[in-house]
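JOB MANIFEST
job_type = single_chain_structure
chain_count = 1
residues = 309
[input]
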Amino acid sequence: MNTPKCPLCNGDRCFDKHNFSTNRYSFACDMYNKYFSIGSTILDSESQPKRKYANLIFEYVMKESDVQNLFFFFEPSYKIQDSDSKNAINLARISYPMSFSEKVDRVLLNLYRVYPEYSWKFPDNKWIARALFADTEIEEHYGFLNVLADLGYLIRESDSYRISASGLKRIEYLSSEDNALKQGFIAMSFSKETESISNTFARAIRECGYSDMRIDHKEHNNQIVPEILYEIRRSKFLVMDATFPNNGAYYEAGYALGKGKQVIVCCRKKEFDSSNKPHFDILQQSMIIFETEEELFQRLVQRIQATVR
């Protein structure tokens, strides 16, 4: 295998070492002053998926700039364990831009993380391809910068670009929208029978610095379903109880997954082991199986802290 290119700067001088026992490749990127490692399955993939993995790694490292020694891997079937390191990031759980508008916004944020000052200029060079979510070799060379300039988010200046006032305004909106997602949505059957589980959910969510949202606790004059979907969109993640099956909770969890939210499913062990266990589709997801509410609280706090960013 040739010397692997750095997922951040696309250079061939950042490769540090290969740990044969764990099959990890380590990088020390001088351009961005970041140290991280990635699994061999990412480096051994085909060229286009490899580029996509590198794009996601770039975005994650730039976004979580204060987190060091990250390890990236790609395992769609991997089930999260409470003992997993917070620094282990499964790229299969990070959504890729699915639309033109989403790509525009995420590229704009990437550029701002690298060039946060209004007057800073940057060239249309291959090394910046990762910030642009470039999927092909042609995109790596010609990039997405002209598109952003056509939209008014960048200003062309001979052989360079800089973020325009309109671009900064859009970035401010996107940043405030992301920061506003300080809510965890609770999806479950609400009754006297489930009250202790609901209260434990709320306590764990608040312990992690988020407000808890139970739709039956919200005062509104709207139809219930649009209000539920609105609150899920405003939430950073969703916690679902599968102990007492509820069709609405399944629907809400599916909607949240479709919106790229983290969904944490919990089920009491007694019901999980019975003939009335959760639906097959949910069984494929890593669940928190608990026996007591205190165990649920401790494990849910750990799961939120490990997976919600």
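[summary]
Residues 47-63 form the longest helix (17 residues).
The domain at 100-177 is CATH 1.10.10 (Arc Repressor Mutant, subunit A).
exit_status = 0
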